[in-house]
Amino acid sequence: MATQPRASGRLRFDDFELDVRAGELRKHGVRLRLRGQPLQVLEILLERAGDVVTREELQARIWPVDTFVDFDHSLHNAIARIREVLGDSAVRPRYIETLPRRGYRYIGPLDDSPELAAEAGEDARAEMSLVTTPARRERSLVLPGALFLCAFLTVGLASWIVWRNVHAKAAVPPIRSIAVLPLSNLSGDPSEEYFADGMTDQLITDLAKIGSLRVTSRTSVMQYKGAKKSLPEIARELNVDAIVEGSVIRTGQRVRVTAQLLQGRTDRHLWAETYDRDPGDILKLQGEVADAIAQQVRAQITPAQQAQMRRAHTVDPAAYDSYVKGRLYFTTEYTRPDSLRKAQHFFEDAIQKDPNFALAYAGLADTYVYLAFAGAMPKDQASRSARQDIAQALQLDDSIGEVYDTLGVLSWHFDWDWDAADRAFNHALELAPSYSCALEDRAAFLAFRGRRSDALAEIAKIDQLDAGFSATQTESATYYDLRDYPRLIEASRRGLLLDPKNSWQHYNLGAGYEGTGKLQDAIAEYRKAMESPDADLPHTTVALAHAYAAMGRKAEAEKMLRDLERDPKAAASPYTMATIYAGLGEKDKALASLERACAEKSFDAEGLTSDVELDSLRSDPRFQDLLRRLGLDQS
User: Fold this and answer.
1) How far, rounded to the nearest angstrom, does the alpha carbon of residue 265 sit from its chain's CA centroid?
2) pTM for the whole thing?
3) Which end of the chain is more exposed for a tag (fewer CB within 10 A), N or C?
4) Do domains 10-122 and 177-310 have the same CATH topology?
């Protein structure tokens, strides 16, 4: 079959058209999902239709030595991707023929219509006109010219090889940061969307275990689900070197995952692979994908980290389904008791279907903790249940970073054991250095303990991983505990851009304004916080009264506090009563209420190191003694 020259940038075969200039493959005018190196391989094969294109030729043109990938693996996957898009078969090929140990050949039809031929002829004539010389000069010049050309090419080739080996590698930066975009659900069933999201979640979690690789958080990447932005644009917004994208298909008793790695700045295709597994091997599959990506980006992965990704056990497919649904309810609405109850139900169902599923126990422990935070479960009951599930999870798999993060939260908020909390958070991040939840929890904990520089260092890491609302919440909590009011204002404003009606962010913004002396602005924000259905009215009312008093409106402030003192709902919290009494100048009652709140280890009592409402007590020796007894003396 004769080779057809490139025709006006378009190569047509059967129902397909490859638009080389646009970098698009279409079928009946519909653009197909093929790009990067697979598209480049197809272009070369079509241009050389009927000829064998060797592996060495393909490597020289598409995979130079400075590329940070495994060439054999990448070429195999590029051909597999082309066949998948074209509906071709390696056993009975219609388009791409494999010649073992040699290369590949395009054997399908090509459109040689007169229009394309005419266009191609014009291009060819234009090129030939540049090199044709008169016949009478040809004989006298050809031999010396050929000798000169050979010598020139030999020297040039040698110089190029030296330059490539010495300098070119430095031109391609290594991949140190990565984002996993939401995997596409290609099953054709919208109800399977949760499964694709769960796979995305777990792949991020597995990659977060690699210490030398910065992995963008789930909350940051989920905003790109269905987005029409280009990959370089997304990579620039997330500040990452590379992007992972792919698809999931679950049909019957098989799960197929296709993943590809692309250089963020250039959209250059680096690696692709398709995995076809039994649903019971889903955890192993996720580990395999993460391990393969780690190898491709040449991440510095320790033997222990590699073992973590490869030691996943078989899981009952129905149990995995329930686990993914539980995680979906937990991660998206962890402050709502009804969503937490649904998460609890799915995690319990997963454990019932597979009692050896460690991640399900970890998810259930998380749920108990946040049910207590939401006031939907007694604190002691939640603590006991969570600890039982943590113990079971660690017995099954002690390498899960999420479990140690939950253990740190329990030690901090429930036990007030600061040293145990510090150890647990540290170990969680040793196991999963890019696990955003552990980074957020540790940042807030360090600020609570008054370790300013450590807390700010953790915030800097979070800013690189997470651009979502949870990150701004963590920043606000951290700056509030550090009493860093200018930064608190900035973080709260960013949070309100993402969620304009969030009462907690309005409260924090009010605190920031009050801390910087902008009392009128503080009052306005406190009022906005009180208008929200989920507002903590007693706490916000005390803050508003405090701002009124600071403005000199002491009569109004005292009336608000006296009304609150008589409110039975406010009286249920000893800590709130302490802030009320502090505002009224009744120090004895305030300190007595604080003692009760700390004895109960109530969640809100952790504000005693930072709340401005207690500033009138801080110089009192009894208050200083309380801080010393709790191990919170920061002097």
Assistant:
1) 18
2) 0.73
3) C
4) no
Q: Taking the domains of the chain in order of start, what are their residue ranges?
A: 10-122, 142-172, 177-310, 536-635
- Other C-beta atoms within 10 Å of 622: how many? 14
Query: Is 225 in contact with 160 (CB distance < 8 Å)?
Result: no
The correct CATH number of 177-310 out of 3.40.50.10610, 3.20.20.450, 1.10.10.410, 3.30.360.10 is 3.40.50.10610
Question: Which alpha helices (DSSP H) does 532-614 contain, by range?
Answer: 537-550, 554-565, 568-571, 574-584, 587-599
What 3-state DSSP class applies to 247?
strand
Give the model's confidence band at 378: pLDDT under 50 very low, under 70 low, under 90 confident, else very high.
very high
List phi, psi (to 5°) of 204: -60, -45
Cβ pair 447, 478 in contact under 8 A: yes
Q: How big is the chain, counted in residues?
A: 635
CB-CB neighbours of 535 under 10 Å? 18
Q: Which tokens in the block code for residue 568?
A: 């039975």
What's the count of helices (H) and strands (E) in the chain, helices before strands?
29, 13
Whether 546 contacts 577, CB under 8 Å: no
Tokens 């401005």 map to which residue? 612
Q: What is the identity of the amino acid at 339?
A: S
* Chain centroid, CA 260 distance in Å: 16
Cα gap 615→515, rounded to integer Å:
12
The three-state secondary structure class of 389 is helix
Which residues, listed in sequence order, are joined to residue 251 by a DSSP beta bridge? Answer: 254
Decide: 561 and 550 in contact? Cβ < 8 Å: no
Write the DSSP symbol of residue 91.
S
Task: Enter the tokens of residue 135.
Answer: 């016949």
For 180, phi then psi, to 5°, come to -100, 110
Which residues does residue 596 pair with via DSSP β-bridges, in sequence order? none
Span 140-191, pLDDT tens digits: 444 445 444 444 444 454 444 444 444 444 444 688 899 999 998 887 788 8
What does the pLDDT look like over 193-225, one tens digit per residue? 888 898 899 899 888 888 788 999 888 888 888
17 Cβ contact partners less than 8 Å away, ≥ 6 residues apart: 10, 11, 25, 26, 27
> Top-level CATH class of 10-122?
mainly alpha
Give the span between the Cα atoms of 553 and 535, in whole angstroms. 24
